[in-house]
# Entry
Amino acid sequence: MTENGTEAAKYSLYCKEHIEEFVNLLREEANRTLTNWHARTPAALMAISSLITFYAQLNWGNTLAGYALVTYAVPILIVSLYPISSVLFSSIYRHCSIVIDLLCLTGLLSFCATLYIILEGTTNASLITTNNQYLQGQIAFVLALGTAFSFHASYLFTVLRNTVFTLVVSFAMYLVDPSFFQTNLLPILEGYFLGLTISWVFHDGIRARFYLKSTDADTRQHLYNQLSKLVYPHQLERIKLGDELEDTMPLKEGKAVVNVFDVQRSSDIRHERTAEFFMNLFQSFLQICMKGYEHNPLRSQAFRLKETGDGFISSVGYPFLPVDSRSLADSAVATALTMFEAFNKEVERFNYSRPIKAAMGLAYNSVQGTFQSGGIRSYDLFGESLIQASKYEELRKQPIIWNIFLKAAAERGLVDFNILIVQEVVYNSLSPSYRELFTEIDLKDKSLVGDFQLMYDNDARYIYFHLLE
# Structure
């Protein structure tokens, strides 16, 4: 099969698979043809032809010359009245392809009526010969023009339509003058096959345009959908408006409470659906972070920074503003507690044979946004807040701190527990209702921890923790 044949087969198959969309496109094209200059130009041509025929036949003494003024009245009325009718009767839009067929057929029959006026109203033998020669030159052109344009999904239907139109015109010409019909069999066949050729080119062009337009739209939508997995909606909108990716997120230094989440002893989890468990968990966390998301100004409950296998890092206050007027500390703790609720629900659905618990560390400090300098320009955060939050979450791994957690848990009758550890700055910024949740550890109390010093936060005097079931 040739390359052109392969392309035609591809267009044909695509149009069959998307027949409803293709039919809608044909309707749109047919409606546009009837309401724009595409149909008005032939209508004007028919009107001019009527006037020229009238004056020519009048000068030649044709007794039927006056009728030439109205021979094309029906197709001209169809073109003139369709725009108004489509407004008054919206259902006519569904049949605009048939309206064009009616326009073509009435135009061909009007031509046959013109033949009758010229042939029957002329008595002078020399004029009859002149008229025959004049008309013979028009038959193929008019028939090809009347059958060239069709707005039907099946080209076979167009072939049948053109054949019927040609037979109707041939019969009408035979009724007008049998000898004239026999003389012009060849121009009739020429017009028929020329119309088929043009109609095929027209039909194939519409199919190709539909295929390219649809697949291009599908490709652009697919790219848009995939890009939406990498950037936020406001970034997509700004990129569509011409902004650079690097201008769509804050890059100046700011302040934020960073939340570092990690599952305790995650390496001990043995289950065939472990990956699915973490995927569902982080999806739940993302929904929590995106609650209240809007972009003028940029705000949401939290900003999802990254997933780290069995961990999740988010921030409150930068680069997105919090969704409420509470302090950053209150917003961060409220978000952390909501995440623990979501975590417990996912653990319950996971139905593991042993308890699965998690830990979070919250720290408030400077943070700054950045895009990677090369390659895939992903957005990232860096700053002291991230480092400190990570170290606060890891305090549970310090034996002297872990023993304090165990003692507090035993007092509450807990064997396994989730842990929320917050920085002193975060605790001091909380409202009283949230402060009541936390227990204080004095890092300088030698009787407890032996003058413990917190890495990357050397000035810290206290840490605060909250145990959850």
